[in-house]
Specification:
This protein is about 50% helix and about 0% strand. The protein is an all-alpha fold. Strands 1-2 form a two-stranded antiparallel sheet. One of its GO terms (molecular function) is transcription cis-regulatory region binding.
Amino acid sequence: MNGSGTDDVNGGLKSFYGYKETFGKDSVWVAIPRNHPRLDTELSETCMNLFAPRSNSVRSDFDPKSDEDVPFLLRHFSEGPGEWMDLFDLGSFFAVDVPLKAASSPLLLFASIALSAKALGRTRITAQQPKGSGSKRTPAEWSHKARYYYDQAITLLRQALENETRQAHASQQSPNPAIAATDAMMELDADRHPEPPSVLPRTDSDELIATTAILCVFEFLDASGTEWSRHLDGAKTLFDIAKDGTMPLSSAASGHSPMLGLRPPTSTKGRRAVFWNICRQEMLNAFINNTNTRLDTNDLSMWRDAGLHISQSGYILPSNDPAVHEPMADDMVSNALIWLMMKLVNFISAGDEFPHEMGLGVRQIALLEYWQGLEQQLDVWFEGLPHSFRPSATEWPDKNNQSNVRSATKIPLKWFARPMCASTMQSFHFAKIQLLLNKPHESTGTKHIKQSGTSSKGKTWSLAQRHASYASILRQSRKHAEEIVSIGLGLKNDSARIHSVQPLYTAGQVLGMRESTTRTAPAGEGNSPDEVDAMRGCVLNLLQSIQRETGWATEYRMQQLLEEWGLPNGQD
């Protein structure tokens, strides 16, 4: 999705993802016992610190109860940001359930309309109001409302956490200085919110957990690295203290071996939706920081409980042949790819952490074997895709229309009937590029391992073979990058478009470099200088339109591409 910029343009793909150290490097996600007041108290206090109000909090004289913009802001959330968050959830929890719950939950209401107003304040289209509304606001006015309702949501969130902490503390009947400090803080806020709701959600409620996810997207929208990271820290902690849990966060933490037998799901609809939303961000966070994921990708029972169909050998079961296996719904097929991408991120992060005493040759062979296992798992997932993950239509560019930038790219437009499937396939091609560019190689002079079912025992890896391998990687990466652009050209759904930012940026890195021309490639491969220029313009146009029409930050990615292409001022 999104990410903030960085000044380091020479550190590889991962150096451009700017949310550094979102969680502590050594932090883990653990399973919390059902009833443990001491742990609940400590973790609730941690949450209160994480959800502290910003220093530039907005004070306003208008009353939310009489604010005429609230109804259509809630509607816009349902039709806009709520759908963004529901792209990979067929249950439409955020777009449908959240607005319904907001009628009786001020916490959800304030968080939802804050995100809605912020999105409106960042769009640069003719109308600055939701469709069908009778109100017209400037971007600055929407931004002011966004900050006000954000502060309202944060205050209620802290009240809920403080209330939970006090109740847990009362059950212990022992004084706690943190409670007194929180009481004093809440008294200072009394003039802003003199009538807090009499019933606040518990820390393990769907309402509170969903609110944290919405607030994460609020900060994620404009690449607010520090604030986005702080909210993700809070979301992770809330999962820890949710005593009923969205699902077991890590069976490894309790010392039990993963169980291979299927268990009935234990999560509610809302918690599962938030869980997978956080999983996507956890995968991205680990990729950004080149660290392992907090979730244990080897805990097969946990991922089965989350809805994935996994074989005894750890592969995703196919969903295209009901006669052989019960198919997963399309959203779970998409989520299965996230699980595989988390494995890939862990592999990239591990790098050369294999024991050096094993010897260079053995270490590289072990890495290559594991890499081949990841490649096979992605291929098995791809081969088991249902028909909905194939493009429904392909439109080739008009070669006679020289004024169209796309015509020179020779890349077709691919349209999918379901936007979720289009976005998932973009992520698949993005993952394949990352896998290819992180392929280990055997040193020249060492013996081959078994590849593609044939044994080359006794033969050595020559320089010629190494060169051919590099050429193959570049060729395959270019094809996957072209697929990303093809899918991007066919995307009209805003939810899918905002999820295409990182794949498009990666495609621009692969296709926009003049070094990847036919000078070093066989005939018929690579791109001519004119095609490279057309690719650049095509990717930049797609990224620019996303920010202009949805408010989702992409400008930093465009600037990074221009710098990588040697065009810091946008001059070609």
